Amino acid sequence: MNLKKWFRCTNSLVMLFMYALVVAQNDCPEFTFPLNGDTDIAVNATFTWAEVIGYNGYILSIGTTPQGKDILNAKPIGTDTFYTPPVGLPANSLLYATLSLVPYDGPPIGCQEISFTTIPVTTPPGCSILVTPDNNAASVTIITDIEWAYAPTATGYILSIGTEPNGSDIVNALDMKNTLSYDPPNDFPQNANIYVTVTPYNEHGAPTGCIEEVFTTSMDLYICDPYIDDVTGTYIYPAPQIELPNTVGICSDELPYRIMTNDLADGFRWYKTNSGSEETLLSQSRNVDILGPGRYRLEAFNVIETENGTIECTNSKLFDVVSSEPATIIKIDVLNFTNSKDITIVATGGGQYEYALDDSDGPYQDSPIFTGIPYGQHMAYVRDKNGCGITQRTVDRDIDTKDFPSFFTPNGDGINDFWQFIQPPENFESVIDLIFIYDRYGNFIHQINPNGKGWDGHFNNSPLPETDYWFKATFINRQDILGHFSLKR
Question: Which InterPro entries match (predicted)?
Answer without folding.
Answer: Ig-like_fold (IPR013783), T9SS_type_B (IPR026341)
